[in-house]
Amino acid sequence: MASRVRPYAWISGAALVLTVVAGGAAPVGAVETGPFGWPLRPRPTVERRFDKPERNWLPGHRGVDLAATEGQPVLAAGDGIVVFAGTVAGKPVVSIDHEGGLRTTYEPVQAQVKVGTRISRGTPIGSLGAGHEGCPVPACLHWGVRRESSIHSRREYIDPLGLLHEVPVRLKPLKPAL
Fold first, then answer.
1. Which UniProt keywords apply (predicted)?
2. CATH number for the domain including 49?
3. Are the beta carbons of 123 and 98 closer than 8 angstroms?
4. Which three-class secondary structure string do you get for the chain?
5. pTM of structure
6. Is it the case that residue 111 has pLDDT exceeding 90?
7. Distance (Å, whole) CA 93 – CA 166
8. Contact, 68 vs 40, CB < 8 A?
9. pLDDT tops 70 at residue 69
10. How far apart are CA 37 and CA 25, in angstroms?
11. Distance, CA of 37 to chain centre
């Protein structure tokens, strides 16, 4: 006698797999994909998150603060061209233009690159300086991103964490959870 499979029996199996992948197993790491990655290695702790102001001139936090150590190498988050390496308001800063009108900014970073240099994602651009206003740990990298717009619209600050395309790596349990 031939066994008969219910037409939609696969749905319960798929639902089980989705449940396990979506939340049943703890992540053991992440694989970076896409054109941008973390500007620090190993992956840093985010000490202060992006807080976009309602208007560009109002107070806010136009980037993220990443915990690090003084002197730690800072890496280019993506391929681009160095457009600034110098001091702004007494702080050492490096800025990189990327495709799509994006500009990433890193501070306080003592530059090891020169303006006009074409760099690849993961290339060291400088070393982290001590302190950063508002950072609760001894050294933080302030990483910011803005989208350069056309003549008809203004610059827009965006959350740098939104550039990261990380695929969580999850372990599938050997036996289904009850």
1. Signal
2. 2.70.70.10
3. no
4. CCCCCCCCHHHHHHHHHHHHHHHHCCEEEEEEECCCCCCCCCCCCEEECCECCCCCCCCCECCEEEECCCCCEEECCCCEEEEEEEEECCEEEEEEEEHHHEEEEEECEEECCCCCCEECCCCEEEEECCCCCCCCCCCEEEEEEEECCCCCCCCEEECHHHHCEEEEEECCCCCCCC
5. 0.73
6. yes
7. 27
8. yes
9. yes
10. 24
11. 6
Q: Is residue 61 part of a domain?
A: yes
Is residue 6 in a domain?
A: no
Domain hosting 136: range is 35-164
Q: Which of 128, 152, 127 is nearest to 140 (CA)?
A: 128
Structure tokens at 41: 């290695």
Count CB-CB contacts under 10 A for residue 144: 20
Residue the block writes with tokens 């350069």: 148
Which position has the higher pLDDT, 12 or 79? 79
Residue in 151, 67, 139, 74 with CA at minimum distance from that of residue 105? 74
**Total structural domains within the chain:** 1
For residue 117, being part of any structural domain is answered with yes
Distances (CA, A) of 122 to 8, 73, 75, 81: 47, 10, 5, 13
| pLDDT exceeds cutoff 60 at 13 | no
- CA atoms of 91 and 121, how far apart (whole Å): 24
In a domain, 98, yes or no: yes
